[in-house]
Design a protein that fits this description.
Layout (H helix, E strand, L loop, with lengths): L1 E5 L9 H11 L9 H11 L4 E2 L1 E6 L2 E6 L1 E8 L2 E8 L11 E2 L4 H15 L4 E8 L5 H10 L4 E13 L5 H8 L2 H14 L6 E5 L2 H19 L11 H16 L3 E8 L2 E11 L2 E9 L8 H16 L4 E3 L15 E10 L6 H18 L2 H23 L4
Parallel strand pairs: 6-8, 13-14
Antiparallel strand pairs: 1-3, 2-5, 3-4, 4-7, 5-6, 8-15, 9-14, 9-15, 10-11, 11-12, 12-13
Helix pairs in contact: 2-8, 3-4, 7-8
């Protein structure tokens, strides 16, 4: 098997067809985040200060595996250290190796031999690997065999809904009480008073681009003053999602649903389809219409459409254990964080530092007061600084 190191994203383009085919068989959880559309757009918008280190595994002329990585430099106590991460880190809900199922063990062995001999790194920080990844048991075995110090720790819960061919009315009746269903219908009817309230799906790339500023406006109204690090919270993030949405739309895999009334978008959901997986990415509603429960209205309609399509095995609510998700499902899995230390003694410093920071963050997330401070107080301060910056005071 031949290994090829890719440092220029243009060199990946010839492998796009095989890459997409490989995804259909190599991963079990939302392969969207390992797709060329996601990875290439992520690199386009977030590559500053990073060096691509994507590794291809070629079995003859056939692509047997791809591991999209990048290197970044961090400083600890004034010393520079190199960290290897997945392309897409912090802007993807599930990440993993992409290997031919029959060659997982061999590819994993060769990956770490190659990384140890040819790449410059101190810590491999692999975030958001699903706990049920078929690669994870093999990864543990290979790291032990090759004498790499490593740590695997749960990082965040990811609710999901198994879609087992049930009819929507049956599922809806079993999940939401009769009074709740009636209340949602009544509130939707009131929203439509004086004008038509409609659910609309957008599936044309140009129309998607045109409507994106309206989505951003709704998102900002919903989350102004909150400390959010992902989604539409930054200029680069918004442009990234606009570009990846247009690409997915051209491929027939985008699902953009809006609830519209009184001439404006009241709520929206942005999702993607890949094989038998339906991945819910972003949702927001205009808080001015909160009395009509627009968030629950549009989620119910979205789930109904997923059930009616009869092609999906799973609805992925993605990262985060928000209570509203558990109104619809009781199933979840952990994303885990895999930290691997290079065998060089000097690499112990960043490895220990990253482990300590990860443990502190994980424990802090369990404390509701700290979570509220992060979301509200820090969010309000950030929002005010942003407003001042826009006024050119700084």
């Amino acid at each position: 098997m031949q290994i090829q190191l890719i440092s220029n994203p243009d060199d990946l383009k010839p492998y796009r067809p095989q890459w997409k085919t490989l995804l259909e068989h190599s991963t079990g959880s939302s392969p969207l985040f390992l797709s060329p559309e996601w990875i290439e757009n992520w690199w386009k918008h977030f590559s500053d200060g990073r060096q691509m280190q994507t590794i291809l595994f070629l079995n003859g002329n056939r692509l047997a595996g791809i591991v999209p990585l990048f290197t970044t430099t961090t400083h600890v106590l004034g010393f520079p250290f190199k960290i290897l991460r997945f392309l897409g880190s912090r802007h993807a809900d599930h990440l993993d190796f992409c290997f031919d199922p029959e060659l997982r063990y061999e590819c994993t062995q060769r990956l770490f031999r190659f990384a140890g001999e040819h790449l410059q790194w101190d810590v491999m920080d692999l975030m958001d690997v699903p706990e049920d990844s078929r690669n994870l048991p093999i990864l543990r075995t290979v790291l032990t065999e090759q004498d790499y110090p490593f740590q695997v720790e749960p990082s965040i819960l990811c609710p999901f809904l198994p879609v087992n061919g049930d009819d929507w009315p049956v599922y809806y009746a079993n999940t939401r009480s009769k009074s709740t269903r009636k209340d949602l219908t009544r509130r939707l009817r009131r929203l439509a008073e004086g004008s038509e309230a409609v659910f609309r799906q957008y599936d044309d790339p140009e129309t998607v681009r045109e409507v994106f500023p309206c989505l951003v406006e709704v998102y900002e109204k919903r989350w102004t003053g909150k400390n959010l690090s992902l989604s539409f919270a930054g200029t680069k993030e918004r442009q990234f999602y606009q570009d990846v949405s247009a690409d997915l739309c051209r491929d027939g895999r985008l699902h953009l649903l809006t609830l519209e009334a009184q001439g404006q978008i009241v709520a929206f959901t942005l999702s993607a389809m890949h094989g038998t997986q339906f991945t819910w990415l972003i949702t927001a509603y205009n808080p001015e219409y909160e009395r009509y429960f627009p968030g629950e209205q549009i989620l119910a309609r979205l789930l109904e459409s997923v059930f009616d399509m009869k092609r999906f095995h799973e609805f992925d609510f993605t990262r985060g254990e928000e209570p509203y998700k558990y109104k619809w499902t009781s199933s979840h899995r952990w994303n885990v964080r895999v930290l691997v230390r290079n065998r060089k003694t000097f690499s112990q410093i960043p490895f220990s530092g990253i482990r300590m920071a990860a443990n502190i963050r994980r424990e802090a997330k369990k404390i509701k007061v700290i979570r509220k401070i992060k979301l509200n107080l820090i969010g309000n301060i950030s929002h005010k600084i942003k407003k001042l910056s826009n006024l050119n005071i700084y």
